[in-house]
Write a structure and sequence with these properties.
The chain has about 130 residues and is mainly alpha-helical. The protein folds into two domains: about 80 residues, no CATH class; about 40 residues. Helix content is about 45%, strand content about 5%. It is built from four helices and two strands, in the order αβαβαα. A two-stranded parallel sheet has the order 1-2. Helix 1 crosses helix 2 and helix 3 packs antiparallel against helix 4. The longest helix has 19 residues. It starts with 20 loop residues before the first helix and ends in a 15-residue tail after the last helix. The relative contact order is 0.18.
């Protein structure tokens, strides 16, 4: 089994909040290619196990390749709904007026839609260590 931290988690650099779901899918495809380069690994035996955001990432991966398996545990259902709910609760707790909350949520949804609806691109090789 191989695993890596998403950007800005553990000892990883970068910031996963600046990645689109397409970026994360490309990262997973790149990891698969890096693992397949090991002498003892057959690319046809490589699959994916993911949590939460994998509910958005792994279907994108499966549209590009046919993994040996795909398992999603606790997959997120709607990025927009989840974020909207969280932000509404947070802003309400901070005492922000309802009209301002509605305005801020509308802006957040528009920005999120623009950022996270980017199409997947072909995986490229990176210096990813599969250990």
């Amino acid at each position: 089994m191989f695993t890596w931290d998403k950007a800005r988690v553990g000892a990883s650099t970068g910031n996963w909040l600046e990645q689109t779901m397409a970026d994360r899918a490309t990262e997973a495809l790149t990891a698969r290619l890096a693992i397949a380069e090991l002498d003892t690994i057959d690319i046809d035996q490589i699959g994916f196990l993911g949590f939460s955001q994998a509910g958005w990432v792994l279907p994108r991966v499966a549209n590009e390749i046919t993994p040996a398996f795909t398992v999603i545990v606790g997959g997120a259902v709607s990025w927009s709904d989840q974020g909207t709910y969280y932000n509404r609760v947070r802003l309400t707790a901070e005492g922000v007026p309802a009209a301002e909350i509605t305005h801020r949520l509308k802006e957040r949804i528009e920005k999120s839609d623009a950022l996270f609806s980017e199409p997947i691109t072909e995986a490229t090789q990176t210096d990813m260590d599969p250990d």
